[in-house]
C-alpha cells in the first residue's frame, strides 16, 4: 500500500470527491501504459489504487484512520476499467470527460437499447387571415399534413399478434463493440447495433400499413381559435397537435404562424386603424358631417349601425388633416380596450366646371383677394402635412 494516496493523486487531505475525480483523470491520461509506455505501469496502478480508495467514503475513512482499506472486502485494484491486452477507448474518454462520451455509457457501462416509443416533433404551419379576422378573432378550420398513430397496429409496429424479438446480433443490448488496431493497442468502441438500429429487438412481421414505424402520414382538419387583435407574424401554440412520435409516441406541439392580408381600405398601425376619405372642397371649407364605414362592415354577424360611424368635419379643414374616432380600432391582445380609427382627409378640387361655376369661383376669389393667383411658401408644419398625406395614400 502506498504511504499516502493523497500525495499520489496530488490533492489535499480535505479534497472533495470532484477534486479527487479530476486529479485521477489527469493522472490516468498521463500514466496509462498504452499512452506513456511500459515504464509507467507501476505509477499507473498506484494512481488506480489511490483513486479506488479515496473515491469510496468507507475506504477513505479507513485510510484516514491509518488502516488498510485493501482488507475491507472491497476487492482489488488491478483493473479500474483499463484491463490488460489493450484498453477500452470508451473508458479512456470517460476518464477525460467524466462519462457520457460519444463512445459509450458512463463509467464504461453500456447505455442499453433505446426505446421504440419516442415523442414526435413539433410542427409549424401557416394560416392566412383577412384583416377583419385578425382584428375581431375567428375560429378557422386548418388542414394539417402530419403523422398520426397507425390505425392498423395502433402504434405497435408489428402485424397481428406478433411481437418484437430480441436481436441476435447484439443480444438485446442495442450496441455492439468493435475492435480496431492502432499504435495505442486494441481500441474498442461502442456503437449502435446495425441490425436493430439500437433498439435491442427486431420486428419479424412489421405492420403492412406503417412498415413497423407505428405511425402513418395523413391529412386531418383541426379548428384553430384565433384571438382578437392578433398581428402578422404572431403564432398560436396548440399543445400535442404536432407529429405523433415513432412507435405511436406522444405527439409534439403544433405552431400556427399567422399572416394578415392587406386591406383595400384600412391600414393597421399598432392598435390603430388608419383610412383616408375624400371630401369636396366646398365641404372642407364649410364643414359637414359624413358617414364613414368601419372594419365591422366586413363582418357578416355585425349590425348595420356598427358598420359605419358619423365623422364631423370642421369648417376650414385642410387636406391631410386627421380626425380620430376613439375605440374603433384594434382590440389589444392583453386587454386595455381597443385602439382608435384615424380618418385622414383628402380635399378634392373640382376638375370640370361649367361657365356658371367658373364665374362663381372667380367672384369668390375676388371677394377674398385671391383673384391674382398669388402663392406663398408654406414652412411651419409642412413636414407634418406631407407625412399625413403619405400615410393617407398608404405610403
Automatic annotation (TrEMBL):
Any single Pfam family the record assigns to this protein: DnaJ
Keywords, in A-Z order: Chaperone, Cytoplasm, DNA replication, Metal-binding, Repeat, Stress response, Zinc, Zinc-finger
GO biological process: DNA replication; protein refolding; response to heat
Gene giving rise to this polypeptide: dnaJ_1
Domain J: 4-67
PROSITE patterns: DNAJ_1, DNAJ_2, ZF_CR
Function of the molecule: Participates actively in the response to hyperosmotic and heat shock by preventing the aggregation of stress-denatured proteins and by disaggregating proteins, also in an autonomous, DnaK-independent fashion. Unfolded proteins bind initially to DnaJ; upon interaction with the DnaJ-bound protein, DnaK hydrolyzes its bound ATP, resulting in the formation of a stable complex. GrpE releases ADP from DnaK; ATP binding to DnaK triggers the release of the substrate protein, thus completing the reaction cycle.
Protein name per Swiss-Prot or TrEMBL: Chaperone protein DnaJ
UniProt source species: Acidipropionibacterium jensenii
Family to which the UniProt record says this protein belongs: Belongs to the DnaJ family.
Organismal lineage: Bacteria, Bacillati, Actinomycetota, Actinomycetes, Propionibacteriales
Amino acid at each position: 500500500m502506498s504511504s499516502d494516496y493523497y500525495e499520489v493523486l496530488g490533492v489535499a487531505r480535505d479534497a472533495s470527491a470532484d477534486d479527487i475525480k479530476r486529479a485521477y483523470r489527469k493522472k490516468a491520461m498521463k500514466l496509462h501504459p498504452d499512452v506513456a509506455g511500459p515504464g509507467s505501469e507501476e505509477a499507473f496502478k498506484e494512481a488506480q489504487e489511490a483513486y479506488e480508495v479515496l473515491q469510496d467514503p468507507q475506504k477513505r475513512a479507513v485510510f484516514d484512520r491509518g488502516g488498510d482499506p485493501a482488507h475491507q472486502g472491497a476487492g482489488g485494484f488491478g483493473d479500474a476499467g483499463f484491463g490488460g491486452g489493450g484498453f477500452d477507448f470508451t473508458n479512456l474518454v470517460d476518464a477525460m470527460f467524466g462519462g457520457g462520451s460519444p463512445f459509450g455509457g458512463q463509467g464504461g457501462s453500456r447505455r442499453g437499447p433505446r426505446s421504440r416509443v419516442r415523442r414526435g416533433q413539433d410542427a409549424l404551419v401557416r394560416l392566412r387571415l383577412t384583416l377583419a379576422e385578425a382584428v375581431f378573432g375567428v375560429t378557422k378550420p386548418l388542414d394539417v399534413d402530419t403523422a398520426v398513430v397507425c390505425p392498423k397496429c395502433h402504434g405497435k409496429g408489428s402485424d397481428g399478434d406478433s411481437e418484437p424479438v430480441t436481436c441476435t446480433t447484439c443480444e438485446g443490448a442495442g450496441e455492439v463493440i468493435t475492435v480496431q488496431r492502432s499504435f495505442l493497442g486494441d481500441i474498442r468502441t461502442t456503437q449502435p447495433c446495425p441490425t436493430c438500429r439500437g433498439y435491442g429487438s427486431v420486428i419479424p412481421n412489421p405492420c403492412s400499413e406503417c412498415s413497423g414505424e407505428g405511425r402513418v402520414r395523413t391529412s386531418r382538419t383541426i379548428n384553430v381559435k384565433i384571438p382578437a387583435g392578433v398581428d402578422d407574424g404572431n403564432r398560436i401554440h396548440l399543445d400535442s397537435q404536432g407529429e405523433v412520435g415513432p412507435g405511436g409516441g406522444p405527439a409534439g406541439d403544433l405552431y400556427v404562424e399567422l399572416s394578415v392580408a392587406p386591406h383595400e381600405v384600412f391600414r393597421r398601425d399598432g392598435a390603430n386603424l388608419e383610412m383616408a376619405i375624400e371630401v369636396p372642397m366646398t365641404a372642407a371649407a364649410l364643414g359637414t358631417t359624413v358617414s364613414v364605414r368601419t372594419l365591422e362592415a366586413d363582418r357578416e354577424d355585425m349590425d348595420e349601425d356598427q358598420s359605419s360611424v358619423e365623422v364631423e368635419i370642421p369648417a376650414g379643414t385642410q387636406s391631410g388633416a386627421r380626425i380620430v374616432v376613439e375605440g374603433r380600432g384594434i382590440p389589444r391582445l392583453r386587454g386595455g380596450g381597443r385602439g382608435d380609427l384615424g380618418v385622414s382627409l383628402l380635399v378634392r378640387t373640382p376638375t370640370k366646371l361649367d361657365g356658371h361655376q367658373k364665374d362663381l369661383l372667380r367672384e369668390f376669389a375676388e371677394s377674398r383677394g385671391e383673384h391674382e393667383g398669388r402663392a406663398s411658401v408654406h414652412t411651419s408644419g409642412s413636414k407634418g402635412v406631407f407625412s399625413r398625406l403619405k400615410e393617407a395614400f398608404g405610403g
